[in-house]
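User: I'm curious whether this sequence folds into something compact or stays loose and floppy. Could you predict its structure so I can see for myself?
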Amino acid sequence: MSAPTLPEHVFVAYWLYQIDPAFARLDETARRAAKAEFLAALEDRPASVTLRGAYSLVGLREDADLLLWVYGPDLDEVQRLAVALRQSGLGRWLWQRQAYIGVVTPARYDPGHQPAFMYGAEPKHYLSVYPFVKTAEWYLLPFEKRRDLMAEHGLVGRRYAVARERLLAGAGSASGTGQRAESSRGHVEARGGETGGEAKEEGGGVLSNTVDAFGLGDYEFILANESDDPAEICRMMESLRKVQVRAYTKLDTPIFLGRLRAPAAALEDL
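Assistant: Here's the prediction. I'll summarize afterward.
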């Protein structure tokens, strides 16, 4: 089983925004113009930056209303998109609550594992994203012990995750695929993840995406789970609470749940 050819780096950004309540008091013409300017900036993003999805968090989280998930091989171009969005009409009314930045790297314990989006898998209806930090004791364990603990983690997770064989089968024809709600620029391929164990066909519908964040922010990893059924994400996360490696978790909150929308539809929720 071989993975696709990969570039050296792929940077991932999850931007979480909250709308200024005063925006709702603008007249409809001003609101539409502001949203149109924001959408234009998003559409005019650098060619190397892929929009994985736009997500509405209205009613799902009290401190964020919109999430954008983008990635690309050049972090500077990702950052320039953030600037363009902030300087657009709607951007002036959005408070950025979180900016999770990560990079896809070779897997530590399972060389064949990569974030699901790197295989070109289409995004699911719901996204649950959160930061992750392990305890200092974890890094003092022998590598073999850490590998075995992550293998147990992988055995549980594979009951809920889309099987790797299915991801690999779709990787070859994934060029040009994007979010369901909007045609997106073609996916780039990369390496990464920290999940043990080989995936088998007995999977579920969850797409698992883990990227490194050491030194890029306050966290060590950024995790994103996608599913068409949010209850499936809930069942998976409860099951993973029972594995031994959980004892080495220092932090895995806040958790943001979003619903995939076409970008224009996500803005209409604001």
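Summary: The beta strands are 10-19, 50-56, 66-72, 94-104, 126-134, 207-212, 221-227, 249-251, 256-261. Confidence is low (pLDDT under 50) at residues 172-201.
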